[in-house]
């Protein structure tokens, strides 16, 4: 993974870093958390990637629950409980849902959608001949997420009609000591726990992401290794060589001058879910009614996700011609090992003649390059994250980098990047209505 | 379809309508276009839904090309050439990609993604035994869309290796008189045309959307009927009874007070692509460097799409606690015919007790209601679009309503909602690079 600023012409990285007051001190604090190796501080998530014990616990449960018979893994969870897993899954296997034969298949149930629940509990369960073809992973950090519990109850009840032993095919992932962990224990259901200080949106490298991904066959050692390797850079107290600090400083610098929208513009369509994972991370961490001193500030940066080149044909006009309220981060793979040649014998040779003799890579690189030039000309600021390939190692590095960027950004914007107090307001109203 | 303002407590609809200067006159102009029934004006798209001749032409080609053997329809197109079709497809059949046996399957190829192109040209083509199992629809309004032409050439060349007659299984959809139409004619490829004045983002009810949807079995008469029925309301010069005018007035009114982000918050996850269709419509129509008088204004509203309840666990914190820069439109179906009961015998009865004895509808309605109350309490403005059901009729009505809202919004914000001049800037740079 490489963070690039050199081709962006509208701002100066070093000026942004100079304005990042107090950041170096905070980086030292995060270094202390890393040195401790413990899960006591709000920044605890930085220690997940170096936790070999955690990987072993996950692998032991995978060894017990996953056999070659497995056809479907249902991940029941919402928000921080599934966005990270979905990001990695879609990046690595996004197109595989289209291939009917590949197994196991990962299915995500997040909101309570009757059409989708019906489809799985009726059409799909009836195609299975054996309970071992099925694995249900139910994830709720708090243990009290309404949609997750409703989906789990409906799904388990439907499966129980066919197989009395269905609870042996269920794995619960929740906070140590939650009511859900207690209930799982009482029902003899296998469960894995999340350290309390690791928030949902920082939990992808905990059992939350590791278990379903490992069950699917993703190399979780590589995922952690990528995260662990970049962690060293992101802990560097020389901020000019710390990518997480650089990125946070650039975001904060632009926020001051009114860039209140942050667009993650991925140029490999399989990375869209990775953008959505970051959307939660940025939206929930920085969008705050109060700052850390208790002042009512209504601050925040609205995250958007765009897919290149698709969205150039959708919102490109807005991005280049519209309000100067955006900072863009292009994310793309520089791996050129996969490419296709535009056929020499063309069917419609009279249209778009400029692609004659070019490869798909030539075309996509030219579009990306053209877009960057147009951004510079229109004074729309951007930075770029280059992934060497779309692999667990690189995705792990990207996620660790972004989670540490977010801690640093919280510090720079003077908000708590680990809480989400306003979410309670609608939950309370919902509870009132349901209890009426 | 019903547009609701009555449960939103932070603004007054009639005040918004009173500030909609000049809109009634423009509604009269659009009425003239509708009365003419022709495709000569920029607003020509309003006449698509009442064009029985168009539906007949589409059905005639479908009758020739679609048989029970058909397994895959590949829609090659990007932006306005596929977003509308994908919106309708995902709303009606989004979950069906997961059901291996259902045919035909609709596959969208938009950007030039090597992994996906490889997958289809290698893995999938080899599973087909007969050329009639395949239909390729290549759509480019201008006839010169780089990604669409590249994907078409690669896909057709791969298929040609197996079937010499592949061009009989290709349908081109493009502007009447474009170089692509000419090339299709010369190659004896079937083609359907788009009226020149109907822009890409307003073209879903033309052959662009109708042909692939009809080939798949969608009731395009109902789609057009829904659009045609709401058109009458959206042409009403009494703005207080014209939903497109109401919605445009409310958006413009809030834009004046700094709501520069418009969130389409769908509460049925199968409507996410409908939100993305609207994202192009709003982003590209209103995001403008210059107003209609030629002043440099850099105006625009950034569209975002959220999915309830999923994104409450992702960006709900930002929406309720963050900057007051958003206007939300909730979109949801009020159809309660499909629901599931939370099982009486629960597995984890000690967690989330409030859902005991409730249905999935009770839960989702309570969440939506709770979110609306929280929006009112936090002074976050919203409106709601209620669909009676998720059917071609209702989706057609929604799309027609939104396209007319956009024309009216362009008038209120003094920009041309039919052009996209800034897109040319990156295309020019891309062309320079490819021709080097």
Overall description:
- A five-stranded mixed beta sheet of chain A has the order 1-12-11-7-10, sandwiched between helices.
- The first copy, chain A, is globular and about 65 Å long.
- Chain A has 15 helices and twelve strands.
- In chain A, helix 4 (83-93) links the parallel strand 2 and strand 3.
- Chain A is 44% helix and 15% strand.
- Chain A has helices spanning 13-18, 23-36, 52-65, 83-93, 114-124, 146-160, 179-186, 207-216, 220-234, 243-256, 272-286, 316-321, 360-377, 392-413, 423-435; strands at 2-4, 72-76, 105-109, 134-140, 170-175, 190-194, 261-266, 288-290, 296-299, 302-307, 326-333, 382-387.
- The longest helix of chain A has 22 residues, at 392-413.
- The first copy, chain A, has 436 residues and is α/β, with parallel strands linked by helices.
- Chain A folds into two domains: 2-29 and 230-413, Rossmann fold (3-Layer(aba) Sandwich); 38-218, Glucose-6-phosphate isomerase like protein, domain 1 (Rossmann fold, 3-Layer(aba) Sandwich).
Helix/sheet category of chain A: alpha/beta
For the CA atoms, what is the radius of gyration of chain A? 23 Å
Major sheet attributes of chain A: 5 strands, mixed
- Which regions of chain A contain 5 or more consecutive residues with pLDDT less than 50? none
The main sheet of chain A orders its strands as 1-12-11-7-10
Level-2 CATH architecture of the largest domain in chain A: 3-Layer(aba) Sandwich
Structurally, the number of domains of chain A stands at 2
| Share in β-strands of chain A | 5-15%
The helix count of chain A comes to 15
Number of strands of chain A: 12
Assembly classification: homodimer
Give the overall form of chain A: globular
Largest interface: A-B, 128 and 129 residues
Indicate the CATH class of the largest domain in chain A.
Alpha Beta
Please, what is the average pLDDT of chain A?
Answer: 96
